[in-house]
Every structure is written in structure tokens, then in C-alpha cells.
Amino acid sequence: MLVDGKWTAEWHPVQATDAKGGFVRQVSGFRNWVTPDDSAGPTGEGGFKAEAGRYHLYVALICPWASRTLIGRKLKKLEDVISVSVVEPALAAEGWKFGTYPGSNLDTLNGATYMHQIYTSADPHYTGRATVPVLWDKERKTIVNNESADILRMLNSGFGDLADDTFDFYPEPLRDQIDALNDRIYPRLNNGVYRAGFATTQLAYEEAFADVFSMLDELEDRLSAGGPYLFGSSLTEADIRLFVTLVRFDAAYFGLFKCNLRRIADYPALNAYLHRILAVPGVADTVNIDHIKQGYYSIKALNPNGIVPVGPDLPGLYPVELATIRPSA
Ligand SMILES: N[C@@H](CCC(=O)N[C@@H](CS)C(=O)NCC(=O)O)C(=O)O
Where do the GST C-terminal domain residues begin and end (predicted)? Predict the structure, then answer.
């Protein structure tokens, strides 16, 4: 991580923990908002007007939080308005790295090698983890925001007429209910899998494990009783936020994070829902199971030898054919 703008040598991928050994996620540091008229958003300062070509997203395809923003950009048809760079899937010794791994890019915009250099360009004294996603302002040469929940809302309504209005991820009448559901799903499931995976005590792991599967059971019941989306016929940000966790679950969380009571494939309604969202035009383009597997299984603290499992076979998502991977005799 960065301490006063300097990369600390003893960087460690196991994140902060609380007194019980539970994983604690860092609070995001840049919280300004792009708005149609340049005014300030719910947090931070103004001066970030929606303009085509002005903003850039830095993402990792392994990362569920970054993927929220990629889906938002796709479905709001903002691809020509906001450019994107994708880091390599594996966390290097200095964190996220730009490179030539298939599906990744070099940073042609700022010429950085590592994501932490983007942070110190914005704030030479930055202290904190250099996380993705980052929404970068090419004009002011700074980070607008590095919190995916905020960026997803900006993509929904901050870009005004530059965005397509087929989807409204945060419709006025549903806002309280969406907030309430997000507040349940985030700690138990989205972050719950990380709490299980990065727990440093049996107790913290088991508490997280119970949260993950009780939440999945609850969502299975909810989707069996109605649908096609969490709030009926319209796809909202709650669906995007749930989808990014579900699509990683069987490939990474089940194995690496020891969330292995059941797979998403074992939940009929959740599995159908996962594939329903995957079939929404544009969504599948944001999902890269190879990056997801390579990225999670590169976390040395959890997988010291770095061996990436061949399976599981994920029909319709990541089919694995033994014949194509078995070494010939
Ligand atoms: N609150 C942030 C969290 C982002 C986050 O934790 N991203 C992870 C990748 S999934 C990251 O960049 N980790 C690098 C690190 O912690 O050093 C958000 O939702 O945008």
C-alpha cells in the first residue's frame, strides 16, 4: 500500500483485520462526483462536468467492484464517452500492474506501470491501498472517485444526455428498498466471501461462511417467489451488485475463499438469474473468467504455489473440456 505517497516494501495481500481476525475493507478516499452541470454530488467537491472523452476508468476484470462499473458503462452505452484501461489479473509485488496479459492493457493515458502511480499522480502524499476501480479526470488530471458504489450511480445519472436511458439502475420509487437490500447483501455476501477468504481465525471464517450461505438461501427464496430481477421486471443496481459476486462464486470463492457449502450452480433460481443477467446484451463482454481465476488464485497468502485450478466446468460460462487440457501421453 501507499504511505505518504511511497510504496511500502512490506506490502502484504492479507488485508487489515479486526480483533477477532475478521477482514476489514478500507474506506475509499476519493469521493467526488461527475454531474451533468458541474455541481457537487452527494459527497466531495464540484467541477467534474459530464463531458464525452474527459473521463477514464481504471479496472481489473478479476475485481467485482470494478466490474460493477464496467457493466454500468456498457448498459448506459457510455463506451464512446468513457475510456477504459484494464490491469493484469495477478496482483504483482507492487499491486495492480498494467501489461500485456491477454485482455489487459498498458496505460497509454498516463504511462503508469502500476496502479499506485495513478494514485500518487492525483495525490503525491496519498496513504492507502491503490484499489480499482478508479474514475480518472483527464482534464484536471486527478481521481474523481475510487468507490464503485458511487461510480455506478454516476454512470446511471451523472452523465445526463450522454447516457442511454433504457436502464435506470436507481429508480426514484425504489431507492429506499434498493438501499436496504444493498445494505443486507454487501456485508453478508459481496464482502462476506472476502471475510471468509481473508479470515485469520476459524471463528471469523465460520461467521462469514454462515452469512454467505444464509444470504444466498434468502436470495434463492426471493427469486423463486418472483423475478426476473430482484425488484421484479426492472434491472437495478442491486442486480448488478449481486451479479458480480455470483459470477465469480463457483470459479473462485467456492475454492479459494472456502465458501464451499454449495455452488451457485446448485441453487436453481440463483443460477437461472445469473444466466439471465449474463444474457443481457453487453454484460457477458464484461466477464472474463480467465482473469477471475488467474487473479484470485495469484493471491500468495491464500495460495502460495500459485497453482490455478483447471475446473470447475461452468457450462455457458467457462466450459472445461478435459480432452483439451489433458497432456498427451
Ligand atoms: N470500496 C472499493 C473497494 C475496491 C477494492 O477493494 N478493490 C480491490 C480489488 S477487488 C483492490 O483493488 N485491491 C487492491 C488492494 O487492496 O491492494 C470499491 O468498491 O470501489
Answer: 171-299
- Interval between CA 132 and ligand 1 midpoint (Å): 5
Q: 10 Å Cβ neighbour count for 262?
A: 17
Residue 289's H or E segment, with its range, is: helix 289-296
Q: How far is the centre of ligand 1, averaged over its atoms, from the C-alpha of 280 (Å)?
A: 26
- Tell whether 247 is covered by a domain: yes
Minimal CA–CA distance to 131: which of 234, 22, 11, 212?
Answer: 11
Residue 76 has pLDDT above 90, yes or no: yes
Looking at the domain assignment, is residue 260 inside a domain?
Answer: yes
Q: What is the CATH number of the domain that holds 264?
A: 1.20.1050.10
**The pLDDT of residue 326:** 64
Q: Which domain holds residue 212?
A: 172-281
> Could you give the CA distance from residue 99 to residue 114 in angstroms, rounded to a whole number?
9
High-pLDDT (> 70) share of the chain, %: 96
How many domains does one find in the chain?
1
The string of pLDDT tens digits covering residues 206-217 is: 999 999 999 999
Complex ipTM value:
0.98
Q: Give the tens place of pLDDT for each residue, 35-47.
A: 999 999 999 999 9
Choose the residue to mutate in 17, 43, 58, 65 for probing ligand 1, maximizing ligand atoms within 8 Å of C-beta.
65
- Ligand 1: does its nearest atom lie under 6 Å from the Cβ of 147? yes
User: What is the maximal distance between C-alpha atoms in the chain?
Assistant: 66
Contact assessment for residue 266 and residue 254, using Cβ atoms and an 8 Å cutoff = no
